[in-house]
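User: We ran a pulldown and think these components assemble together. Before we commit to crystallization trials, I'd like a predicted model of the whole complex to look at. Sequences follow.
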Amino acid sequence: MGESGNRRILVTGALGQIGMELLFALQNKFGYENVIASDIREPEELSKLEFRYEKLDVLDAKQMESIIRDNKIDEVYHLAALLSATGEKNPQLCWKINMDGLMNVLELAKKYKFRIFAPSSIAVFGADTGKIARQDSPLNPATMYGITKVAGELMAEYYHSTHGVDIRGLRYPGLISWKVMPGGGTTDYAVEIFHKAVASEVYTCFVRGDTKLPMMYMDDAIKATIQLMDAPSENLSIRGGYNLPSLTFTAKELYDKIKEKIPDFECNFVPDHRQEYADSWPDETEGNLSKAEWGFELDFDLDSMCDVMIQSLRQ
Ligand SMILES: NC(=O)c1ccc[n+]([C@@H]2O[C@H](COP(=O)([O-])OP(=O)(O)OC[C@H]3O[C@@H](n4cnc5c(N)ncnc54)[C@H](O)[C@@H]3O)[C@@H](O)[C@H]2O)c1
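Assistant: Here's a predicted model for the assembly, 315 residues in total across the polymer chains.
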């Protein structure tokens, strides 16, 4: 614990789409001094005063250990990963970063007894899941990224049951946010479209208009993360990845909703290789267990999410 009695936090992969929002939520909750951001990249010059930073490649277990030991870390939010589209370009590197990185955190948690948040993804599902993904739907992913997320969930359950590691995870849907551009996932079109709409440019969407995927506004994802980490351990029946309730809309429905608010906006649909990954995922997720066990509910629907995205990007 920090001097204030607050938990001491390390975030890996903190400069990414989720990290740059989670960091500030954690700072608000636990205090600036108790939250350390880390990433394989250096932060931009302007961000350097906004958070404590340590450069860390999650494949470097020694460096990870010294940061955790020297700062008496109580909790690691392990966000460093390669996502679906980037991972498919280099599947071996995807396996290495996603699995060896997680293994390094798990082994250190066994030794130093800190808690872990390690996100999973809707990419754990495959074509046999059907349109609605339930908590216990089959997990037969078609991408290397999805395979690493299934293996990560199994590792979480294993380290929890065998070594008592307090690890928790969520199957995030596609996350829509405005602060940082997403890092190479299949659902990135749902963020890119807003940037083009607000810049009065035409957007060429890389999936078909009828493509429907589970999505969520970033604030709901951050809320879910904090709520899950605050939940009493005995309430949790899942360690690998809770399904979350999600928004569900086609790419064309998203375009239509934005066009209601920005009437001149034009979008074409020209699918590329990412269509195949999108086709292998469900349309929506059912998240009853996250509500029953730790009280999670969505705050944003499609309309309010579009309003806040457009307003924020305009500012
Ligand atoms: N964003 C989404 O829509 C989404 C959906 C489902 C799950 N997730 C999961 O959430 C987590 C965070 O995702 P994100 O969207 O912020 O990803 P991102 O790509 O935006 O950020 C990942 C960060 O990890 C860093 N990184 C890569 N290799 C590293 C290494 N070897 N050591 C340290 N850092 C390294 C990158 O520099 C980057 O800043 C990932 O586990 C991802 O699978 C994200």
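Residues 177-215+247-282+300-314 form a domain with the UDP-galactose 4-epimerase; domain 1 fold (CATH 3.90.25). That may be worth checking against your pulldown data before setting up trials.

User: Thanks, that helps.
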